[in-house]
Design a protein that fits this description.
The chain contains 12 helices and 10 strands. The protein is α+β, with helices and mostly antiparallel strands. It has 2 domains: 189 residues, Jelly Rolls, CATH 2.60.120.10; 125 residues, Arc Repressor Mutant, subunit A, CATH 1.10.10.60. β1 and β2 form a beta hairpin. The longest helix is centred in the last third of the chain and has 19 residues. The termini are far apart. One of its GO terms (molecular function) is sequence-specific DNA binding. Keywords: DNA-binding, Transcription, Transcription regulation.
Length: 345
């Protein structure tokens, strides 16, 4: 990487010496085929994307690329220079800031202007529908699949007519190249994201305004209830209050109490007690610790308070609960345990 950084700095200095305006994509000329050499293929929603070419190229003044077609998708972005695109009987002028897509089987000819080179950022890729099992709705897979399908639908109907790169798809090429230079942690995922951005930004330029997608809105009462329940689960071993949890989920204590009654069917205090008693019951069966020690470890600062609430929920004392399941702490005779708990009650 140090060698690449040195070369990068030298090239930038050379550009400054020429007196020409800086070319933002000049760094991509040094290893123009760097991304082409990567066997980059990935899943996006229900689509399989295989990158065939992703590079900066240039056409000499007056150069003509004879009419041809591809069975894949080829995105062309013009970061510098002028030229022309010929599709059928139509000729379209090309200049800096434009892009166009030649989709499958679109016959096209490209010509560079007579006075200066024309540069092109090219993404050439296969897009294949993947026929596999359904998506996991809990983790947003259907949303990604929908957006990928919507993008492909636009690309399939996009005319081979140059349009303004309004959403800066060219920047994604440079970001992908920088990722190759730096090779950060998550290099593959980073490249995938930049390629997807090129597809999306191209599609947006031709999408109807009403085609904008949306993320489903949350039921905020349910969301806040889940956040509060998770906070209780995480902190039940220590004293927690309604005010504390309300502050965490950013509602008033009164509103949180209403949320617990509407979403959980019980009061906040009863929910906390339920969580603690369930954990105490589990530990009574998995540990030989004294009841007082277990109570203190689950938020009951005064262990004496545990006995009546435990009996109210389970219909028996903690020691009776242990005996019911065939468990008795070592050295704790039945008579002494019963006598001790009778005193607590």
């Amino acid at each position: 990487m140090n060698g690449q950084t040195s070369n990068r700095n030298e090239a930038q200095q050379a550009e400054r010496r020429t007196g020409e305006p800086p070319f933002a994509f000049a760094r991509m000329k040094r290893r123009w085929d760097a991304l082409d050499r990567l066997d980059l293929r990935f899943r996006w929603g229900g689509l399989g994307i295989r990158v065939l070419r992703c590079h900066l190229t240039s056409f000499a003044p007056g150069q003509i690329i004879a009419a041809h077609k591809h069975s894949e998708y080829e995105f062309h972005f013009i970061p510098k220079g002028k030229g022309a695109l010929i599709v059928g009987d139509a000729t379209y002028p090309l200049q800096e800031g434009l892009f166009y897509l030649t989709g499958p089987d679109v016959v096209h000819e490209q010509r560079s202007g007579p006075e200066e080179p024309m540069y092109e950022l090219c993404l050439h890729c296969e897009i294949t529908r993947l026929d596999d099992a359904g998506a996991d709705a809990a983790w947003g897979d259907p949303l990604e699949r929908r957006e990928a399908d919507e993008c492909l639908a636009i690309l399939q109907t996009m005319p081979a007519v140059p349009a303004l790169d309004r959403y800066h798809g060219m920047n994604a090429f440079l970001d992908a190249y920088r990722a190759w230079e730096d090779q950060p942690v998550g290099f593959y995922t980073t490249l995938k994201q930049h390629i997807v951005q090129i597809l999306l930004r191209a599609a947006r330029a031709h999408a109807a305004p009403e085609a904008a997608g949306s993320i489903p809105a949350r039921d905020m009462n349910d969301h806040r209830f889940r956040l509060a329940v998770q906070y209780i689960e995480d902190n039940a071993a220590r004293p927690i209050s309604l005010d504390e949890v309300a502050e965490r989920v950013q509602v008033s204590p009164r509103q949180l109490q209403r949320i617990f009654r509407s979403e959980g069917g019980t009061a906040f205090r009863d929910w906390v007690e339920h969580v603690r008693l369930q954990r105490i019951a589990e530990e009574l069966l998995s540990s030989s610790s004294p009841v007082e020690t277990i109570a203190a470890g689950h938020g009951y600062g005064n262990p004496n308070y545990l006995y009546p609430v435990f009996k109210h929920k389970f219909g028996m004392t903690p020691s009776a609960y242990r005996r019911l399941h065939g468990i008795r702490p070592p050295g704790a005779p039945e008579e002494e345990t019963d006598h001790h708990e009778r005193k607590k009650n």
